[in-house]
Amino acid sequence: MSLQGSKYDRPEAPSPATGGNGAVAAGNKGNGTVLSSPSLRLNPSQEHKPYDYEDMQLEFSAVLLSSLEKYLPHTMLRDPRDQKAKFMQDILLKYLPPRERNRAIKHREYRQKIISNYQPRNRELYTLNPTAVFVPSFLKAINDNTEQSFRNILSEPSPGIFVFEMLQKDFCESLLEEIENFENWVTEAKFRIMRPNTMNRYGAVLEDFGFETMLDKLMEGFIRPLSRVFFAEVGGSTLDSHHGFVVEYGQDRDVDLGFHVDDSEVTLNVCLGKQFSGGELFFRGTRCENHVNTDTQSEEIFDYSHAPGQAVLHRGRHRHGARATTSGHRVNLLLWCRSSVFREMKRYQTDFPSWCDECNREKKERQRSSLATRMDIFRKVGESTT
Ligand SMILES: O=C(O)CCC(=O)C(=O)O
Ligand SMILES: [Fe+2]
Questions:
Q1: Which of 300, 297, 298 minimizes the C-alpha distance to 314?
Q2: Does the complex come out with an ipTM higher than 0.90?
Q3: Which of 25, 113, 233, 368 has the most beta carbons within 10 angstroms of its beta carbon?
Q4: Closest approach atom of ligand 1 to CA 249
């Protein structure tokens, strides 16, 4: 039931060193494949001031690269930033399990092929300029950064589903143009692109054609502050990777999207346009892995009709789908936001997760029945002593 994104999760930092000489064997011959030798240092160069990698297209987190930089060999510390980033990413790749590593190397080559051949149409979209992207009310709420400022601009029509005005009309149109431009290039170049996930035959992954940095900023600066307040229990404050894509419905496109949960902790779904009818989102309660197929309660039923510029924010485990787009063309921007910290913590979770509606119902039912049993005992004891 869970959709799998094509992007692999970013790993944790490897332990910096092993072996007698304190070296982590890894290196690169310039063809993207990791071979033996050069090494990291066992003792970091404490006085070295690392670069900021935030604005680069990366396969690992920018923070991770900045932390690793002081372990680079002395001779590399003054190298250009790009060179250091490539070296460190190759080392990190080596620490992925073999299957993931092969997948990551293939994906890197795939992205490089696109980036070096595709000519963007609206280049300004690739760096996030908040005043050009967001409506003023949204921007103000994020700048104020309080729960009250968020509540002033959003509604919660059903528990755990937040709706608000987010994107400017011009930005939506410009992004639609860019997507169309990309698709035309894909067709002309006969390039075989990877679709966003197993359920879509159309649509495109935004990180694959240059939007990685822009989406980093969107998640870190705008979605994480909201998620920290509304989705803290599923790692909302530690979102650290994403899978961003567009889905397209209508004639000659996908028709609808089946009932599913996302491979995300928090999902942002924004309608970009164009004109359409149908295509309502339907939500049916949040479920953990154990309860994903359980019945829906009447209070969990919520259907929503999207309009261009509007955003819906929900937990990835909130079960949902999209009804058929019956006319026109519907295009939505999706950002599946993930937290590696939350995923790691979940592996050790022994009791029920508080965010699963079914677990909560079961817990309440257990409490109710244990209270009833105790009341029964008290009643019987009372009867026998009178
Ligand atoms: O069509 C939509 O708006 C929903 C898309 C969605 O849920 C997804 O791609 O995960
Ligand atoms: Fe979804």
A1: 300
A2: yes
A3: 25
A4: 1
Token pair 């966003």 is found at: 196
Checking if the pLDDT of 60 tops 90, the result is no
| Gap between the Cα atoms of 272 and 255, Å rounded | 17
Q: Which residues contact 148 (CB under 8 A, 6 or more apart)?
A: none
> Residues 261, 264, 270, 275: what is their CA dihedral angle, to the nearest 10 degrees?
-40
Q: Name the pTM for this structure.
A: 0.81
What is the C-alpha to C-alpha distance for residues 231 and 224, in angstroms, rounded to an integer?
9
Distance in angstroms (rounded) separating the CA atoms of residues 28 and 87: 7
Q: Which of 280, 263, 262 is CA-nearest to residue 271?
A: 280
pLDDT in tens, 84-140: 998 998 888 888 888 988 888 898 899 999 999 999 999 999 999 999 999 999 999
Rg, the chain, Cα only: 24
State in Å: Cα 143 to ligand 2 middle. 28
Output the CA 7–ligand 1 centroid distance in Å. 17
Q: Is the CB of 332 under 6 A from ligand 1?
A: yes
What six digits make up the tokens of 224?
């994480």
Secondary element (H or E) of residue 103: helix 98-117
Q: Are 39 and 74 in contact (CB under 8 A)?
A: no
Residue among 198, 299, 277, 197 at smallest CA distance from 245: 197
262 Cβ inside 6 Å of ligand 1: yes
For 377, list phi and psi in degrees, rounded to 5.
-65, -45
- Cα of first residue to Cα of last residue in the chain, in angstroms, is 58
* Among protein residues, the one whose CA lies closest to atom 1 of ligand 1: 322
Q: How many whole angstroms from 378 Cα to the centroid of ligand 2? A: 50
Instruction: Please give the structure tokens belonging to residue 129.
Output: 């300029």
Which tokens go with 127? 């760096």
Please tell me the distance from the alpha carbon of residue 162 to that of residue 313, in angstroms, as a whole number.
5
Distances (CA, A) of 49 to 17, 148, 212: 20, 39, 25
Q: Which atom of ligand 1 is nearest to the CA of 203?
A: 9
Atom 7 in ligand 1: which residue has the minimum CA distance? 321
- Whether the pLDDT of residue 31 is over 80: the answer is no
Q: Cα(132) to centroid of ligand 1, in Å?
A: 25
CA atoms of 147 and 230, how far apart (whole Å) = 9
- The Cα 107–Cα 193 span in angstroms is 11
Ligand closest to the CA atom of residue 5: 1
